[in-house]
């Protein structure tokens, strides 16, 4: 890819589209009978039946209700924002961007759709589709992370280059990519909106997957705030001081009781039991409010 095209990508999708070469440089490219295509920057009416979906489209989840709402709007007012396609041959196009608009237009019963027609090779297609999707406000964090990963792996980009493409600093790109190292259960919760990006940023600071899953359970069960999760994450990462004789290892039954109490009180409860069956229960708290919460649960 030329330096000029790479610089265009750094400006975003619209800049690249404006810098692209107009499709159909001469009428003989696809033989006789090739329909006219308007000059670069102009809108063309393309038959929907002639458009195939972009195989590099990173987004696969489209909200049915939102599509229906858009389709109803298209029926009343038409499609205001054209899609963008590239021409493959006479009467055959491939979608570059605007799959949601294309789906809604089909749902609305349209037979043709306004479109910009561009030329782009496969790497440009992928970059353009990914950049457009990353710039969407309603894209969930896992979809963004997967798009970043694809740009790095399939477009051979470094994190700094990726940051330039999507106007993000390297630390932001890194944080998104680290989400993909979380256990699948947590990734699914982020995708489904059960866990926010703030919660996720706190979880990725924890190195132990079991501890991540433990706090994740508390988030989904008890609705812990981001601040609370950050406090728990710091507490769990704090090194344990080893002083004197080490306690006896806990039996499976005692470990289960400890886990159940930890879940009940939303904190890391510790049980200590000696060989005579004597011991203690430690319930740590992170603040006066947290102590009040625990005391209330104990009916104190």
Automatic annotation (TrEMBL):
This protein's UniProt keywords: Chromosome partition, DNA-binding
GO CC term, one of those recorded: chromosome
Pfam families reported in the protein's UniProt record: HTH_ParB (PF17762), ParB_C (PF23552), ParB_N (PF02195)
Stretches assigned to the ParB-like N-terminal domain: 44-134
Gene Ontology terms: biological process: chromosome segregation
Family affiliation: Belongs to the ParB family.
Protein name: ParB/RepB/Spo0J family partition protein
Protein's organism: Mucilaginibacter ginsenosidivorans
């Amino acid at each position: 890819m030329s330096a000029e095209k790479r610089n265009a990508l750094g400006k975003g999708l619209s800049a690249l589209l404006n810098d692209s070469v107009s499709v159909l440089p001469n009428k003989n490219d696809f033989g006789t009978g090739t329909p006219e295509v308007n000059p670069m920057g102009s809108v063309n009416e393309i038959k929907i039946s002639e458009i195939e979906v972009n195989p590099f489209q990173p987004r696969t989840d489209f909200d049915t209700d939102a599509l229906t709402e858009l389709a109803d709007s298209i029926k009343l007012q038409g499609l205001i924002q054209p899609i963008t396609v590239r021409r493959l041959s006479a009467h055959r196009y491939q979608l570059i961007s605007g799959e949601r608009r294309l789906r809604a237009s089909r749902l609305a019963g349209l037979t043709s759709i306004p479109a910009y027609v561009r030329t782009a090779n496969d790497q440009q297609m992928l970059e353009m589709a990914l950049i457009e999707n990353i710039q969407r406000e309603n894209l969930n964090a896992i979809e963004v992370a997967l798009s970043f990963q694809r740009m790095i792996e399939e477009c051979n980009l470094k994190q700094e280059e990726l940051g330039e493409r999507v106007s993000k600093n390297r630390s932001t790109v890194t944080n998104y990519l680290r989400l993909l190292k979380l256990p699948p259960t947590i990734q699914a919760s982020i995708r489904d909106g059960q866990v926010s990006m703030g919660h996720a940023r706190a979880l990725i600071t924890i190195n132990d997957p079991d501890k991540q899953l433990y706090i994740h359970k508390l988030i989904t069960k008890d609705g812990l705030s981001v601040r609370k999760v950050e406090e728990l994450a710091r507490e769990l990462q704090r090194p344990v001081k080893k002083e004197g004789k080490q306690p006896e290892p806990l039996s499976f039954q005692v470990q289960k009781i400890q886990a159940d109490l930890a879940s009940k009180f939303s904190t890391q409860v510790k049980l200590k039991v000696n060989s005579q069956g004597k011991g203690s229960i430690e319930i740590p708290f992170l603040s006066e409010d947290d102590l009040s919460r625990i005391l209330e649960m104990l009916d104190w």
